[in-house]
Design goal:
The complex is a heterodimer. By secondary structure, chain A is an alpha+beta fold. Chain A folds into three domains: 4-150, Beta-Lactamase, CATH 3.30.450; 197-292; 300-449, Heat Shock Protein 90 (2-Layer Sandwich), CATH 3.30.565.10. Chain A contains nine helices and twelve strands. In chain A, the strands form three sheets. Chain A has a five-stranded antiparallel sheet, covered by helices on one side. The longest helix of chain A has 52 residues, at 4-55. Chain B is α/β, with parallel strands linked by helices. Chain B has two domains: 2-119, Rossmann fold; 127-217, Winged helix-like DNA-binding domain superfamily/Winged helix DNA-binding domain (Arc Repressor Mutant, subunit A, Orthogonal Bundle), CATH 1.10.10. In chain B, 42% of the residues lie in helices and 21% in strands. In chain B, a hairpin with a 5-residue loop joins strand 8 and strand 9 (148-150). The chains are: A alpha+beta, B alpha/beta. The A-B interface holds A 241, 244-249, 251-256, 259, 277, 281, 289, 292, 311-312, 314-315, 318-319, 321-322, 340-341, 344-345, 347-349, 352, 407 and B 9, 11-12, 15, 53, 79-81, 83-88, 91-92, 96-98, 100-105, 107, 114, 118.
Chain lengths: 449, 221
């Protein structure tokens, strides 16, 4: 699964790196050019001055030496000039007896770097001015090695500064992304709460704070959808209940009329009527119950399984009280995000079936959450006579009845199997080692938390 | 023993009334929730068969009202809504048993009898007085040698009520309330006639008269 956070982070990092690179490169060249422009313009100025003095002076040498400032007189001061008037070459005194390499292409005036005396790095401006004979060529130089050192130091500082800023920006963007996308994580958590049927932000008693205005409408919409779904399930269940009621009362009357027929000696007709009524009743029962199931995908209030089984056991012990059945419960407190009615139906049918067959004891065990956190695993067993091995495979199939003598309609196991199938779980039947009767073992996967 | 049937389907209610009356019970029928609520809280029934889908007032609300008012009459819920969540709800609301529709009349009868037996002071399945045994299915007395002594309907009902409530002072009003249904002509002097008849059958010492209070059925064998 692609992570929005990582993708954004990568793209932003690349942009930042590119910007830092361009900045570093640009700033590297910039001070050098600035200095060269500045020094160059001063050199040009000096060259113009020298040319002006030399041009019409009777003694070009003296005029040049006088026009130049003090720095041109101090030996190896770093400021030098060379003037070529025809064959005569005038050098600044500061040159001592070193020579200054005269650039060849000084026609239009150009600035370049050359190495000068005493290991100095000189910036030389040379220009050929119009004048007598071949014209006057003036070259003025200044030592820039100190400035170069300063620029180099500045560059180092710049690189370190940019690198540090880049690191800080990368950290900042990651932080901003994590913080900025955090509402999405909250939204996912809220969706899970909706799935479990817990109250949303804003509702009284909700521990969740409201999501940002971009996300909250989505959450509200999902919440409305979930509520709508739950309401629809409620309406369907109600309608199914009404339908069931409307169909079963006439069936009860028909069944009693069959009894009357039998009372008048028409046993054959009564038996066939009873068979038809029973078939209709079984079909209605099974299909309507199936329609009522919520199934695994429906949100609902989480159910506390221990309390649910406690209530159910009380009710079953009351229903079977004449036979003195004890229902042992081996279950810990645990909240389960499955539909309450489905769970009641599942455990009700399994326990009722067990109570019908048991002599004295029924045991229901639910595995603790630890090893089976992603599923509800449980077993229901009784101390009855059990089911022969060759019949075990047929248990839970529609209309299967092992013993016609037992009261009830023998649909319990089939309904339980339907519910387990609806939730994508599994159910197994075998002999109970502990109690000797039937042991029904089932596993229901739970929605992801 | 007097029963209330709260069932809105007339055909089914009729059959229930006929069968239960045959079995020796005084039966009243209420066709809606309001009537059932009224009868249940004013008449001393020994058991109620309650349909949950009653018009005017829901069966469960009715049941909760009775229980809140301290009415402990045994209630058998009879309903087509027999999902386990409804069963749990019904029994937690105070019902004593639950039967889903459609059902066999004989199963209903057996359940009602079990309810009455559990609610009465004497819960034995066989009712005995001296060498007599009361056969509830055939509504007659049988002595140790297996000889039958037939009983009329009212005799049977009265004797059964006496035998379920031995050593208790039972007023003539109470006896007639539990022996006759709502529409019957009630004349408590008729009770005297039946008591006299039972005394000749079981021996004069079996039923004692408490002047101004009523009768006591002596439970010792």
């Amino acid at each position: 699964m692609k992570s929005l956070r990582n993708r954004l982070s990568l793209a932003l990092s690349l942009v930042l790196l590119a910007a830092a690179g361009i900045l570093a490169f640009g700033l590297q060249d910039f001070p050098r050019r600035l200095v060269e422009d500045f020094v160059g313009s001063r050199l040009r100025h000096d060259a113009d001055l020298l040319y002006a003095r030399v041009l019409d002076a009777p003694d070009a040498e003296a005029a040049a030496q006088e026009a130049a400032g003090n720095e041109y007189r101090l030996p190896l001061s770093g400021h030098y000039f060379v003037i070529r008037v025809g064959a005569e070459v005038i050098r600044s005194r500061s040159l001592w007896d070193e020579d200054l390499a005269m650039p060849a292409d000084a026609q239009a005036g150009s600035t370049r770097r050359v190495s000068g005396p005493a290991g100095q790095t000189l910036l030389v401006f040379a220009k050929r001015f119009p004048g007598a004979d071949a014209g006057i060529t003036v070259a003025v130089a200044e030592d820039v090695s100190a400035i170069d050192d300063a620029i180099a130091r500045f560059r180092w500082r710049l690189m370190i500064g940019v690198a540090l800023a880049l690191l800080a920006l990368l950290a900042l963007q990651r932080g901003l992304l994590v913080h900025g996308l955090a509402p999405l994580d909250d939204a996912v958590a809220t969706c899970r709460r909706i799935e479990r049927g817990e109250p949303l932000a804003g509702a009284p008693g909700s521990p969740v704070r409201a999501a940002p205005s971009e996300v909250q409408p989505m959450l509200d919409a999902i919440d409305r959808l979930a509520r709508h779904h739950a309401q629809r399930l409620g309406r369907i269940r109600h309608a199914v209940g009404n339908l069931s009621h409307a169909l079963k009362t006439p069936l009860a009357v028909l069944s009693q009329q069959a009894d009357d027929l039998a009372g008048r000696g028409e046993a054959g007709a009564a038996a066939s009527m009873h068979a038809q009524v029973e078939a209709m009743r079984a079909t209605i029962e099974r299909e309507l119950r199936r329609a009522r199931l919520a199934g695994g995908s429906t949100p609902g209030e989480p159910v506390e399984i221990r309390a649910l089984l406690g209530a159910l056991a009380d009710v079953l012990q009351q229903l079977h009280r004449d036979r003195g059945i004890a229902i042992e419960r081996d279950v810990q407190e645990r909240r389960i995000a499955l539909d309450r009615e489905d769970l009641l139906e599942l455990f009700g049918n399994l326990l009722d079936n067990a109570c019908k067959w048991a002599r004295h004891r029924v045991r229901v065990s639910v595995l603790p959450a630890g090893p089976a956190a992603d599923a509800l695993e449980f077993s229901v067993e009784d101390d009855g006579s059990g089911v022969p091995d060759e019949m075990l495979a047929q248990l839970g199939t529609a209309g299967m009845r092992i013993d016609e003598q037992q009261p009830g309609h023998g649909l319990g196991l089939a309904i339980a199997a339907d519910i387990v199938a609806q939730y994508g779980g599994s159910i197994r039947y075998r002999r109970s080692d502990a109690l000797g009767g039937l042991r029904v073992q089932a596993r229901l996967p739970l929605p992801v938390r | 023993m007097r029963l209330l049937i709260a069932e809105d389907d007339a055909a089914l209610a009729d059959r229930l009334r006929t069968r239960l009356a045959d079995a020796g019970y005084a039966v009243d029928v209420a066709a809606d929730g309001v009537e059932a609520a009224h009868l249940g809280s004013t008449e001393p029934y020994d058991a109620v068969v309650l349909d949950l889908g009653l018009p005017c007032k829901a069966g469960l609300a009715l049941l909760r009202e009775w229980r809140a008012a301290g009415n402990t009459v045994p209630v058998l819920i009879l309903t087509a809504r027999d999902g386990w969540s409804e069963r749990v709800e019904g029994l937690q609301a105070g019902a004593d048993d639950y039967l889903g529709k459609p059902f066999h009349l004989e199963e209903l009868l057996a359940r009602v009898q079990a309810l009455l037996r559990r609610a009465a002071p004497v819960q034995a399945t066989e009712l005995r007085a001296g060498h007599w045994r009361l056969d509830e299915a055939r509504q007659c007395l049988i002595d140790a040698d297996g000889r039958e002594q037939p009983l009329t309907g009212t005799e049977f009902r009265l004797l059964r009520y006496f035998m379920r409530h031995p050593d208790e002072v039972l007023s003539k009003t109470r006896l007639s309330e539990h022996v006759y249904d709502y529409d019957a002509e009630r004349d408590s002097n008729v009770i005297e006639v039946y008591v006299r008849r039972l005394r000749t059958l079981l021996g004069a010492g079996r039923i004692e008269t408490r002047r101004g209070q009523g009768y006591v059925f002596i439970g010792r064998p």
